[in-house]
């Protein structure tokens, strides 16, 4: 028998029990350090991963459940965009549209003294096309002109409208009319992402 083992066996009982307890504590400590703690850490990582996957599954399920609604919203937005584009003339239509504005002014009884197109201002999928107008006519004729412009199939806004220098012409009060007529041209090649807000159609301001 190993002399060291014989020496231990000859120790009093309480000492042998202390040695046994110490050995058991060392074995338990090694088990905790080498096996239990790593397995516990791995389990925590798996639980966290599982919670993340469950959250993603719930989010995917929510999206799947709402897919018909999202599709309907997309189709609605696409229809609104198409409606907006039908009100925006392309580059070839701009000259005719501007000519129609002066024609409406004359048909309303106004005398056009200045017709000055300004520089285009790109605004995403469309560009503003401003035209400075100076006219002479009565208040009633100005109202007729504004109403006619508002009824155009294309968007045209009348802004910065001023009425000044009233003159009596044989009982007819004539006014110097200044305004900025702004239409909007669709920029070909632009995407719906560039759309932003649809240009507003309004009357005189």
From TrEMBL:
Membrane-crossing segments per the record: 13-36
Keywords: Membrane, Transmembrane, Transmembrane helix
Pfam families noted in UniProt: PilO
Gene Ontology BP, a term: type IV pilus-dependent motility
Keyword Repeat applies: no
Name assigned to this protein: Pilus assembly protein PilO
């Amino acid at each position: 028998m190993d002399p060291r083992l014989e020496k231990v066996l000859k120790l009093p009982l309480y000492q042998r029990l202390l040695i046994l307890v110490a050995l058991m504590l060392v074995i338990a400590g090694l088990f905790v350090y080498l096996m239990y703690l790593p397995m516990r850490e791995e389990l925590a990582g798996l639980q966290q991963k599982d919670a993340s996957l469950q959250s993603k599954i719930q989010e995917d399920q929510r999206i799947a459940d709402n897919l018909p609604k999202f599709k309907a919203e997309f189709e609605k937005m696409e229809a609104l965009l198409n409606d907006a584009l039908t009100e925006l003339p392309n580059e070839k239509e701009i000259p005719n549209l501007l000519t129609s504005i002066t024609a409406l002014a004359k048909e309303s009884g106004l005398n056009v003294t200045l017709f000055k197109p300004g520089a285009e201002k790109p605004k995403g999928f469309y560009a503003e096309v401003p035209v400075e107008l100076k006219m002479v006519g009565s208040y009633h004729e100005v109202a007729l002109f504004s109403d006619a412009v508002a009824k155009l199939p294309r968007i045209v806004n009348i802004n910065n409208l001023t009425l000044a220098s009233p003159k009596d012409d044989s009982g007819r009060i004539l006014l110097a009319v200044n305004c900025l007529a702004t239409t909007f041209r669709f920029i070909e090649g632009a995407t719906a992402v560039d759309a932003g807000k649809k240009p507003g159609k309004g009357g005189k301001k």
